[in-house]
Design brief:
The chain has 215 residues and is α+β, with helices and mostly antiparallel strands. The protein is built from two helices and nine strands, in the order αββββββαβββ. The longest helix is centred in the first third of the chain and has 71 residues.
Length: 215
């Protein structure tokens, strides 16, 4: 009568031996899953921190650039002319209306035009430097210029007793209604203010109006 009891006991022991194995496998899977989630969380945190650092850097650069532009704006003398020197070598005279991190707006614009008089390049000759009022060129531009600030080398305020300021004042006095562009057959005429100066540094004369015909 005891044999059935003996057969049951080994089965119970075997089933008991299998339970720890199944429990260990499930815990291993859970640990791997939690480890993968932990790695993903760490990468997510790193990505968020990197994005925040980049945004803060961009904000700092933007604020620094804005402060630099504001510091330039306060130096503009509104009742004086300014000279704007570009990295191309061109110089424009006028009134700076506004400056920001991307562009500068200039109005009431004049520029220099030089014509050499002589039969050859080796001959020492005089240079006729004309201060031209923008507006009567072939493409008839509006008297306003938007200049990329990356092209501006420097700019400066002009005194009223300088040659350029005196020439501009004389031109405005002679043309109270603004510049009047004249046309001629076969080309466009540029009306400007002439300032003739000796190439060797002689004196200059200002205040006469000249029309130069362009081919």
């Amino acid at each position: 009568m005891e044999f059935p009891n003996r057969n049951v006991q080994p089965q119970t022991a075997a089933s008991g031996a299998q339970q720890p194995a199944s429990a260990g496998g499930s815990s291993s899977k859970k640990s791997r899953g939690s480890s993968d989630k932990g790695k993903l969380m760490r990468w997510a945190v790193i990505a968020i921190v990197a994005a925040v650092v980049i945004l803060l850097g961009a904000l700092i650069v933007n604020v620094a650039s804005s402060n630099s532009i504001k510091s330039q704006t306060k130096y503009v003398t509104n009742d004086k002319l300014q000279a704007v020197f570009l990295n191309t070598g061109q110089v424009y005279f006028g009134n700076i209306q506004s400056i920001n991190s991307q562009y500068m707006v200039l109005s009431n614009i004049y520029y220099l035009q030089t014509a050499n008089n002589g039969t050859s390049s080796t001959t020492t000759s005089n240079s006729n430097v004309s201060l031209i009022k923008l507006g009567c060129e072939l493409h008839a531009p509006y008297d306003q210029m938007v200049i990329n600030t990356s092209q501006v080398t420097f700019w400066e305020n002009l005194t009223s007793n300088g040659k350029v300021a005196q020439a501009v004042a004389a031109f405005q006095k002679q043309n109270p209604n603004g510049q009047q562009c004249s046309s001629s057959t076969g080309g466009a005429s540029t009306s400007g203010l002439n300032s003739t100066q000796n190439a060797n540094g002689g004196s200059s004369s200002t205040g006469t109006t000249q029309s130069t015909s362009k081919p």
